[in-house]
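Catalogue entry: protein

Sequence with per-residue C-alpha cells
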Amino acid sequence: MRNIVLGVVAAGISAALGWLARTYLWKRKLRRKQAFFGLPDNSESLLVVNRGASGPDLAVMRYDVFALLELAALIKDCNAHAQVLPHDAARQGFGERTEFCVGGPASNRRMAAHLSSLLPGVRVNVDADPSPDRGAFQIGTERYRVEVGKSEYALLARLTVDQSNGTRPVFLFCGQTAITNQATTRYLARNQERLTRKYGDSTFVLLLKVVNSGAYGPDVVELVADVTREAKTPLPAVTAPRNSHRAS
C-alpha cells in the first residue's frame, strides 16, 4: 500500500511540475509576442486600412479584409483590442497605440505619410497613367517593378520612433497590389517567432516577393532582402535606379 501511495504522490508531483513548466513556457512565449507587437494585456491598437475605390464610405477591398482578419487574430492572441479606421480618418501621432497600416500609398494617405517621414529611402510610383513603372518600388538605387499575378513586391516594416520608446511600434504592410497586402500580413503571422528571435523589439524593413499570385494566391512569399538601411537612408534629389527587377 505504501508503494502505491508513494507512486500516486510521485505521479501527482510530476504532473504538477509538468503543468508548471508548460505554463511558464507558454507565458514566456506570450510575453515575447506581446513585446514584439507592443501589445500588453488589454492594450489598444489601431488598424488603418485604405478605402475601396468605389462603393459606400466604409467599403474595404476583399483582400484587405482578409489582411485585417489575419491581424485581428494576432491581436487577439496577445489579449489586446483593435480599432479599425479608414486611412483618411486616422489622425494621431506615434507611441500612444501600436498601429498596423495596410495598403499602398496610392490609396492610403497614412501609408504615404509613414513612408515619407519614416522611410525616406523608399519611393513608390503612384502615377495613374499606365506605364512599366506604375506601382514600382524604388529602394535606394534598386527598382522593383510589378507584374500582376506573376511577380509582385511588398514591404513589411516594424518601426519605432523616439516618442514610443520602442514599446508601441508601427507595422507597415505596403504591397504593390491588394493581394500582396494579405500576403504580407500572412507572412508576419507565420514568421513572427523567427522575426522576434532575430530582431527583438528593434526596427526592421523587409522586402518580400509574392510569386505567381494568380495561381497560388497569397501563400507563396519569398524574402528578397532586409532593406532596413537602404529604406532609412534618404534618397538624393535625383536618383537614377541601377537595376529593374522582373520575374524571370
In short: Residues 2-37 form the longest helix (36 residues). The chain has one domain: 28-232. The mean pLDDT is 83.
